[in-house]
Amino acid sequence: MREQQFVSFLLDRHLLGIDIQLVREIIRNVDFTPVARAPQGIRGLLNLRGQIITVLDLGPSLGLPPRELGPASRCLILKSPEDVIPLVEAGLVDEVPAGEPVGILVDAISDVIRPGEQGVDLPPANANGIDADHLRGVVRLDGRLLLVLGLKRLVEDGLGLRVPALAD
Amino acid sequence: MDLDDRQLLDELVVESQDHLNALEPDLLTLEKGVAPDEALELVNRIFRGIHSIKGGCGFLGITTVQELAHAMESVLMKVRSRKLDVSPPLVDVLLDGTDRVRTMLADITHCAEVDARDVYARLEPFLNADAAPPPEPEPVAAPPVEARRSGFVPLRKLSSASDGPDPDAAPPAPAEVVPSPEAAGSDAGAPGMVDGAGPAASVGARAGASDVLRVRVELLNRLMNLAGELVLARNQLLQALDRKFSETAAGDQVLGAAREAVEDARRTLRASLAGPEGASPDEARRRAERVDRVLDDLSTRIAQALPARLSDLPGMNATMVNLDAVTTNLQENIMRTRLQSLEALFGKLPRQVRQLARQTGKEIELVVTGGEVELDKSIVESLSDPLNHLLRNSLDHGLEDPAGREAAGKDRTGRLEVRAFHEGGQVNVEIRDDGRGIDPARVRAKAVEKGLLTPEQAARLDDREAVLLIFAPGFSTAEKVSDISGRGVGMDVVRTNIESLGGSIDIDSQVGQGTRTRLKLPLTLAIIPSLLVRACGRRFAIPQVSLDELVRLRNGREDQRIEQVQDAEVLRLRGHLLPLVRLSALLGLPVDEGSARPATYVAVLKVGGNRYGLVVDEVLDSEEIVVKQLPPSLKDSRCYAGATIMGDGSVAMILDVPGIADLGGLRFTDAMQAAAADERSGSYLDRTESQTLLLFRNAPDGEQFALNLAMISRIERVKVEDIQVAGGREYLKFQDGSLRLLRLHDHLAVKAPDAEPREVFVIIPKLVKHPLGIIAWECDDVVSVRVEVDRDNLRGTGLLGSGMIDGRLTVFLDIHGLFEAAEPELYHVAERRAATLDRTRVLLAEDTSFFRAVEKSYIEALGASVTAVRDGREAWRLLSEEPGAYDLVVTDIEMPLMDGLELTRHIRASERHAHLPVVALTSLVSETSREAGMAAGVNAYEVKLDRDRLATTIRQVMEEVCSHA
Predict the structure, then answer these.
(1) Can you list the alpha helix ranges (DSSP code H) found in B630-669?
(2) Facing residues of B618 across strands?
(3) Cβ distance B105 to B13 under 8 Å?
(4) How far is B636 from chain A (nearest CA, A)?
(5) Residue B299: CB partners within 8 Å, gap ≥ 6?
(6) Smallest Cα–Cα separation from B586: which of B637, B530, B645?
């Protein structure tokens, strides 16, 4: 696997990571407007410099409790497909997450992780209770396991674009 | 094709379309006939337009368009070289050619698939015309003979301007012919082209072309977003400064307090130092000095620790004011870049009108003004169809043919005026003709014929109201369906379209003098006026265009106006019932305890012809908001129409007014709509039979109930002590036996009396198998009224629905349902449920709302599904539209438009429905009416309101049908 870097973050004490190439920016402002009658994963809408961002909580899709906002809460704004497609074409990433501007709510941001020589391992069937379907791999750190998420499906799930029964 | 090419191509298409738009009116003017010098100018301009299209398409290798443009250009050159005269057939083929080019441009990547052979075929004779010069004086309006004497531009010059040899070009004309003096003016066009001194206005309009730059809408949208961002940043900056100001003010106070504390400490310390038991005066002074030093130092440090004052920043205030003004200005101007002039739309009108005038054989003078008025691009685009429809209406129905006009003492040529102008922050578009006007009498007749109104109702409308009927769904004044209008897309569609743009339409017509239709439109859809409300602490925006009025309800007094029975809430508003939706409940938000608030608000909202009330906690403000598209994942929510960003940078949802009505389960059924419409025209109810009702109450301050007197055997006034209790039930000694009594509040969610009176009323029904007595607190009245029973606001076991009687909400009881709930054993509910008629689809025709509700509930109780309609005509329409969709018809006999007997005869006479069973219902069964029914072909004849007999009859009829089948 090529040299990757992951933005790592906490979600209910799990250390999770996503490819840094997919992240546009990380913002402290989690002052979103809650939206009722929205798909389960959508917490609300956020104004990011005039652009409306859909704020997602991956918790329900991962089988975790919904996020509670705290001082360490952050929102990871994902790149738009237009920005990601060239990266895919360049072979830098291999998934295009969502068709709308999405921010992912996390409990706290951790380090940027470079797997280095030990690389990314294939995920076990069930890593700390998270379904392997949602994982692209694991990185073994000192005494901790970084679970690298596959975003496409999680985001589609959260946006209600995926009918659970048909999920493969 | 790479991106740059794509972009070039897009630009080419837009540019070519502009050329087409510009040259079409010129072609039309040319055809009408103009002065020779003007004709030259027109031909020049048309030529240049076509030539540019040809050049551009050639450059990008779009040969299909290039070749057609070339052929047209060649013909035009012949006109310029006086080899050809302008004639209607020539203009026709040129117009068709431009049309074809337009079609090609519309889908440029597939333009080769557009067949233009017919156009080529028609251009051909003109191209070859130089062999045989056209016959001398052309018997057409255009160009008069003098045109020949004025100097047309020599062909040679033209050829050099086109980018290639023109094989079809006529032999060169004398090279040095000098253009006419008038035409020798400006030369702003393509090289070698002589721009004639045409009408000053048109030249002026074109002169500015070089100041115009084409910008992609996408870029404008981005700019708009950025401007919005800037506005927000400004707001945040202002807020931050505001905070700072108040911090400084607070700091001054803190500083003052601290200094005071320091001085206080100083005094205290000095006093203590100067105390009698103190050391030597020197020692005391030294100590005092040290205290002073320490305290002074402390004072300074406190002052330093506080923030610098804003006033210490010179010019800050002025800068802020300036920033504020510039930002606002910038935003407004960027907004205006999205505006487009109506010219794009108006420019096409002469062409359309010309064509329509030809088709209809009418002579029409079209006057278009106000093309420079600007509207949001999307509105201009959506306006095309409605405008077209209105023009067609004017041409087809409004304006008379020349003979007709002369007969009416008018000028042969009809006048059609299209005018746009600003008024009160909106744009008005007016279409006015001087034709025959809309004849209210004809509209009335049509409405009656279409079954929209009874003759009496129609007669009651005043002329203006009658004219407005043309907006009714399904109405079309066209007596014959013609090629031009009256194709089923009626004025109701026009109205819907205009309303969906946030506009309105009004019509004004005088018989014999003409019709004026006025559209009122907002300037932009990107910014809409809205009302901000709050529910459960969240802000929402309601588009003003959907808002009818606001009703404030003082808390604690809500119940005076909100009638709540079972789970349906309605607001009594000036004698009407308004279904309510509570926003917080609908959105599933935790319900805010209302006691803290002094009042609750109901926003009365419009959905088409219907209204409903949205209950919110607070009304905040009216504000112009910038509409942002919803993210795709929220598009299915149905309760939001968009989102907007508020001044403080937070997002607020824009409510979807029709979507919420939908989600709230408000079904504005056809019947309700009709009733609403009738209410406006004043009189649907007059048509329905009146019914005699007993009005009573279960509690002194409780709901008003109604029972049809036909269902009541007697009413007894009973002393409470005469009611006996046995086994937890109440009985009344009655005639020879005992009658079980029931209290409504035991079986329905209705108000119970707080105390027991000495006497009550017992209502004893008839037409039921096992009568039970209903205890009533008070029997108020027996009234004979016509009333609509609404089954949607109020539903539940034992209830038929609700209606308004003398301005009071009245609950109609379903005796059968009520008794079944009270005495399931007696009524063998379980057993009956088992023997259902499910899968039986019943079509019920009944004009009286009350009976319709009752009969529907009776038949539905059998398990059948019921479609209820108001008259035989409607029933017949449904049967014809969906043959096989119904298993049984139950019909009233006396109905307007088409009665039950006629319906039955229709059914029996049709091949498809001949065997469809029909049960007729009537309030009176006499032998003659029964015979008439049987003669018409009904299977059974029953009396209304007797449920058990109706059930038995329906079962028998269905069994017979099944056994035959």
Answers:
(1) 657-663
(2) B534
(3) yes
(4) 8
(5) B258, B259, B262
(6) B637
Question: At residue B655, does pLDDT exceed 90?
Answer: yes
Cα(B578)–Cα(B569) distance, integer angstroms: 9
Among the partner residues A31, A47, A100, nearest to B633 by beta-carbon distance: A100
Quote the DSSP letter at residue B556.
T
Q: Which helix (H) or strand (E) holds B122?
A: helix B117-127
Does some domain include residue A136?
A: yes
| CATH fold group of domain B527-668 | OB fold (Dihydrolipoamide Acetyltransferase, E2P) (2.40.50)
Cβ B84 vs Cβ B141: under 8 Å: no
Which is nearest to B810 in space by CA: B783, B775, B847?
B783
Taking any CB pair shorter than 8 Å as contact, residues of chain A touching chain B are 31-39, 42, 44-47, 49-52, 54, 99-101, 159-161
Closest chain A residue to B236, measured at CA: A49
CA-CA distance, B101 to B50, in Å (whole number)? 10
Rg of chain B in Å (alpha carbons): 41
User: Looking at this predicted complex, what is its ipTM?
Assistant: 0.90
8 A C-beta contact, residue B587 and residue B578: no
Helices and strands (H, E) in chain B, number of each type: 32, 34
Which of A27, A30, A43, A47 is the best mutation test for B, with the most CBs of B within 10 A? Answer: A47
Domain that holds residue A25: 6-166
| Number of domains observed in the structure of chain A | 1
| List of chain A residues whose C-beta atoms are within 8 Å of the C-beta of residue B638 | 37
Nearest to B649 among A44, A47, A160 (CB): A47
CATH of B683-827, one of 3.30.200.100, 2.40.50.180, 3.40.50.720, 2.60.120.260: 2.40.50.180
A16-60 pLDDT, tens digit per residue, is: 999 998 999 999 888 899 999 898 899 999 988 778 899 999 998
Q: Output the CATH code of domain B339-438+477-521.
A: 3.30.565.10
Q: What is the pLDDT of residues B503-558, one digit of tens each?
A: 888 888 888 889 999 998 887 776 778 899 999 889 999 988 888 888 888 766 55
Closest CA of chain A from B630, distance in Å: 8
CATH assignment of the domain containing A70? 2.40.50.180
Write out the two tokens for B605. Answer: 């909202």
Tell me whether residue A1 is in a domain. no
Task: Report in angstroms the alpha-carbon separations of B178 from B154, B155, B173, B181, B283.
Answer: 8, 12, 12, 8, 118
Q: Which pTM does this prediction carry?
A: 0.46
Q: Phi and psi for B454 in degrees, rounded to 5?
A: -85, 160
Q: Tell me the pLDDT tens digit for each residue of B598-622.
A: 678 899 998 766 788 999 988 888 8
